[in-house]
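User: Predict the structure for this protein chain, please.
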Amino acid sequence: MTTIRWGVLGTGNIAKQFARGLAELDDAKLVAVGSRTAEGSAAFAQQFGAERSHASYDALANDPDVDAIYIATPHPMYKENTILCLEAGKAVLCEKPFAMNAREAGEMIDVARGRGVFLMEAMWTRFLPHMVRLRELLASGAIGELRMLQADFGFRTGFNPQHRLFNPELGGGALLDVGIYPASLASMLFGAPERVTGMATMGETGVDEQSAMLFGYAGGQIAILSQAVRTNTPHEALLLGTAGRIRIHGSWWKATTMTLSADGKPDELIDVPSPGNGYNYEAAEVRRCLRAGLTESATMPLDETLATMRTLDEVRAQWGLRYPGE
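Assistant: Here is the predicted structure, written as C-alpha cells:
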C-alpha cells in the first residue's frame, strides 16, 4: 500500500481529532466518512476534505476504496460497528476503551482473528514519542527495577444527567472514559494484575464520578490509580524503581517532558517533542502494520486489550456497577 486510504465512522469530536492527526501523515488519506445522517456525513467530509460521504455505517464499511476504518461512535456501539467493518474486510482502529466489557471485546477479537483482518485499540498515548522514550529508559535500567506506579486522570465537569459522561446507557462514568488511560499504562508496565481492589463514589445517575484502583502483581509491584469526571486531579504519573524514579509531568498521557531522578545523579529533565496532535502516531502504527502484513500490533496487542477489559470488569463488579444490557 503506497497510501493508506482511511474512512472515519462517526462524526463527533474524537473523529475530528483523528482526522486532524491523519492529515499530518503524507502517505495516509481520509477518503470517506460514514454517519447516521447524510447531513452530518457531508459536513464532516467537507470540513476535512474527504472525497465521499456515506449516510450509513454499512455504506462506509462496504466502500471498496477504503483500506482502514477508525471507529469513533459512542462506547456501546463499538462492538457492532467494529464487527460490521471487519466482516467487510476492513482494517479497524477502534477508539478506546475498545468495548463495554471483556465479553464484547472477546467477540470483536474473535471476528478479527477468524477473518485474518487487522484490529487494534486506539490507545493513542501508547504510541506518543514520550511513551516510546519511557519504554527505552525502563529497558535500559535507568531507574533499576520498576516497583510502583502512581497515575491519575481526573477533571471536573458540570453535572448533566443527559450527557454521555453521566449516562449509564452510554457507559458513563470515569472508569471507561478516562480510567482506561492509567489502567492501560499499568498494563504496559506490569501486565495483567493478580489482585484488584478499588473504591468509587457513585453519582445520582448510578455511574462512578470518582474512583480509585489498586492493582497488585505477581512480582510484588503495585499500581495506584485514580480517575474522575467531577474532581480535578494533577494528571501526573510517577514511576518508582529500585534505583530512581521518573515523573511524567502534567497531562502525563500527552506529555512532552519528564524528569529522570536516578540515584546518585542530578535530576535530568527529558524533553520529547511530539509534532502533531497525537492521533497521527496511532495512525502511523496502523500504516506500519498493514504494510508489513500484520493483523495485530505488538505495541498494543489484542490480548492485552482483552486483559485490561477483564480487569475493568473486575473493578466494576466490586463496585456493583453494571451497564444496561449486561
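The longest strand covers residues 146-154.
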